[in-house]
Amino acid sequence: MHGGKVEAHSDGDGAGSEFVVRFPLPVLPLREAGITQQTPSAPNGRRRILVADDNEDSASAMAMMLKLMGYEVSTASDGPEAIQRAEAFRPALILLDIGMPGMNGYDACRHIRQQPGGEEIVIAGLTGWGQEEDKRRSRDAGFNYHLVKPVAPADLEKLLAAVESPPVSGSN
């Protein structure tokens, strides 16, 4: 479904196995993605992504997929932890669940935006809610994107490509 492929190799009994999973990542023009600023990268040049979701299975699965794609990933299981990790980890992108108990994603996003450098982070809200009012609330809270769960692979790929793209001079 992702257009990727899986390879498996073994030299025989007792020799172990090697599995390789590859996912394609399309590159979109920056104008099409609507991003105009460079996002921070890790010292080793790889992009950092924070995945915050109270459903730890969902967060772990997303983190594992992103790591396989070559990203440096950290996870958080609630709003306060997402705020703390955002400040310490300095991600280029945060995939932030909106419907978390206690502190929801709207409030966590507002707090992250108030941190030094918080305005430069691309924050995508992940939610089961997709009505226009839900999207408006996301924009008002400071989210750059509003993705409805389950997130379509093509939507995630487009978001990742937008974050990876260098800035284009003079674009909006």
How would you characterize the overall build of this protein?
The chain is elongated. The chain has helices at residues 30-33, 56-68, 79-89, 105-114, 132-141, 153-164, and strands at 5-9, 18-22, 48-52, 72-76, 93-97, 122-127, 145-148. Helix 3 runs parallel beside helix 4. The two termini are 32 Å apart. The strands form two sheets. Strands 4-3-5-6-7 form a five-stranded parallel sheet, sandwiched between helices. Strands 1-2 form a two-stranded antiparallel ribbon. Helices cover 35% and strands 20% of the residues. The model is unreliable at 27-45 and 168-172 (pLDDT under 50). Strand 3, helix 2 (56-68) and strand 4 form a beta-alpha-beta unit. It is α/β, with parallel strands linked by helices and 172 residues long. The protein has six helices and seven strands.
Strand content bin: 15-25%
**In total, how many beta strands?**
7
Radius of gyration: 17 Å
Can you count the helices? 6
User: Helices and strands, in N-to-C order?
Assistant: EEHEHEHEHEHEH
Spans where pLDDT lies below 50 across 5 or more residues: 27-45, 168-172
Q: What separation lies between the terminal Cα atoms?
A: 32 Å
Rough outline: elongated
Q: What strand line-up does the widest sheet have? A: 4-3-5-6-7
Main sheet specs = 5 strands, parallel
Give the rounded overall mean pLDDT.
Answer: 83
Helix content: 25-40%
